[in-house]
Each structure stands twice: as structure tokens, then as C-alpha cells.
């Protein structure tokens, strides 16, 4: 499966399917990367042992010189310290302006390696080789970056890749909790994308959840297509791209209150989408039921749909107020007029948010 992110001279293909990493060299050649250019693979300590050898063999077989660096797994790799280590490894590998960075891993490696590529010698080319389901989202669109101790993704750059090569065979080694987390973003793309995608996902939910290669490949293709279309129309998030934050205002608040160590990103976004959908109904923005269909779909993927009892709605609201996407002190949220019809609401009444958080909260404690 192939689609194109249409950005004029910076357009690039997204290719999705099993076994693509074994021919990565040919894909690079076809994108204009000659064998005289050194390749530098960035991967992490989980993905490296599982998939790096295959990539290296394919690239060396195609005549490239290949160097690599392995970073720690998980969000802590998106730090200034690890970024400095990646740059040091790039210098030691004697890369130059013509070298190409390959990000082999999930969203963490993609964001980190992409940012290293955006800044090394004022910018070198890079390629995304996503290995998580969540990375169908993060590998498309050119947002790269790392975290600062004072906040997530505060340091970054827009830098579009040359190519996204998504080998769905790598997903076979992904832990089940990471699979579910990534599927939350697929549901997000279906909910903001189009009704037909949402209905298709509902019909295919068991095959997708079971990791059926064809159904999962199709789900990722459709998810990437929604993201690619939004990015093509608003590359730098001046307006439309904001709809990609559906479920993320509440989701980010929950993650922050957990110190990024409790719920996974996808779990937090799943709960956030149900809350945003319920809010859409409460405020009369929705012209049809939206919360129940989304809740039902998430539940079938094994994702949480209620705010865990440990979160006090008042504290969630406080964390939402601190979100960097607030504008002029107003609460901005993505709501749904219908499935497939997102609307950005710029002055969401806090009392309604609070009521919805109470409604969506799990009993107990
Ligand atoms: P991740 O990269 O940390 O991967 C999750 C875990 O799975 C890690 O432990 C990783 O080592 C492991 N893993 C990855 N692939 C594997 C495989 N095939 N087999 C076995 N283990 C594997 O996390 P993620 O969920 O992919 O991405 C989250 C990051 O993405 C966050 O930092 C977030 O900010 C970022 N993000 C960026 C964008 C963007 O537009 N740039 C969008 C959404 C999210
Ligand atoms: Zn997300």
C-alpha cells in the first residue's frame, strides 16, 4: 500500500506492508539516495536487537556504508542528554551534509532521530522506519523534537522525511499494551477522518485487534491517509492540524498528573476521546450520538474508556488549564459534530468539562 504526503517539492511517499525492510536499500535508491551517501541508523535497546540486523544487511547488500547508534528505550530517550549523545555518534561516524539518518523504532526514536537530522549541520535528510502502531501517527507530518525537564516536546523542529517505510512485520514483536496504545490513535483518525473509516474499523475490529496482517495493514493505511491529508493542508499547524488533538486535551492532563508513568499515551487519549465526545453531546455540538460509538469501539480494542477514580476532576481541569495549547486563557478543545466531523471549539465552558469528567469517572476509591 502506498500514499503520498502532498507538500509540493517536499512531498514524500508512505509505503506500508510486510517485509518492506528487506528491500529498504532499493526504496532509498528510488528516492534518490546514492550509495556514496553514508547512512546512520538510530534505534533503541528494544528494537535494535530485534530488527537492526535485517536493516543493516539489506542496506549493506545494496552497497551503502552504514553506522548506527542505540539509545535507551522509552520516553526518557527524548532528552537533551541523549540528543547530545546521538549528535556525538553522528560526528564520530564522520557524517556530512549528504548523509541520511534512518529512524528505526517507535515515536520516541522517530522524534529524536528526526530532530537530530533537522539540526545536524543545519539539517540532513532522514527516513522514518516505524515499528509501533502509534508511529503510524508520529512518523507522518514532520514534527520532530525532544522534551525539556519542564515539559514535553518543548524543543523541536518541523522537518519532513524523505520516505516513510512501514514494515508491518516488525509489529509482531510489539508488546500487547503498546499495540492497544497505538490502536487508540487509529480510532482517533477514524473519528476525525470519515464515517466510512469508522464503520470499516468497527466491522474489522476483531481482525485488527488479533493482528491480522491484512486488516492491520489496511487500518494503518487509512489512519496514515487521514493524517497525511490534514498535514498536506496545514503543515505547520496554523489551523486545521489542530483537529489531530482530538482526545488529547484531557489525555495530556491525565498523563501529566500520572507523571507520564501510569497510563500509556494511547490509554490516556482513549479516555480523553470519550470525554470529548460526551462533552460534544452535552454542549449540543454533536448532531448525532458520538460518545457511545467511540466508547464501544475503544472497549473492543481493550482500551479504557473511563477516568480512573484516582483522578480528581478538579485537578484534571487544572492540568488542562496548564496545557500549552490554551489560547488567551481559554480552554480550546476538539469536539465532534458527528463521527468524521471534528470542530475546534475555542471557549469551552469549564463547568461543562467538569461535569463530564465526573460523569466519565470510574466508581470506587
Ligand atoms: P516508543 O517509541 O517508546 O515505543 C514504545 C515501546 O515499544 C518502547 O519500549 C520501544 O522500545 C518498544 N518497541 C518499539 N517497537 C517495537 C517492536 N517492533 N517490537 C518490540 N518492541 C518495540 O513509543 P511510541 O508509542 O511509538 O511513541 C510515543 C512517542 O511518539 C511520544 O514521545 C510522543 O510524543 C511521540 N509522538 C509524536 C508525534 C509527532 O507528530 N511527531 C505524534 C504522536 C506521538
Ligand atoms: Zn497522540
From TrEMBL:
The keyword Nucleotide-binding applies. Its cofactor is NAD(+); Co(2+); Zn(2+). Its main location: cytoplasm. GO terms for cellular component: cytoplasm. It catalyses: 7-phospho-2-dehydro-3-deoxy-D-arabino-heptonate = 3-dehydroquinate + phosphate. Pathway: Metabolic intermediate biosynthesis; chorismate biosynthesis; chorismate from D-erythrose 4-phosphate and phosphoenolpyruvate: step 2/7. Binds 1 divalent metal cation per subunit. Can use either Co(2+) or Zn(2+). Pfam families: DHQ_synthase, DHQS_C. GO terms for biological process: amino acid biosynthetic process; aromatic amino acid family biosynthetic process; chorismate biosynthetic process. Keywords: Amino-acid biosynthesis, Aromatic amino acid biosynthesis, Cobalt, Cytoplasm, Lyase, Metal-binding, NAD, Nucleotide-binding, Zinc. One of its GO terms (molecular function) is 3-dehydroquinate synthase activity. InterPro entries: Dehydroquinate_synthase, DHQ_synth_AroB, DHQ_synth_fam, DHQS/DOIS_N, DHQS_C. It is an enzyme of class 4 (lyase). The keyword Nucleus does not apply. NCBIfam families: aroB. Belongs to the sugar phosphate cyclases superfamily. Dehydroquinate synthase family. This is 3-dehydroquinate synthase.
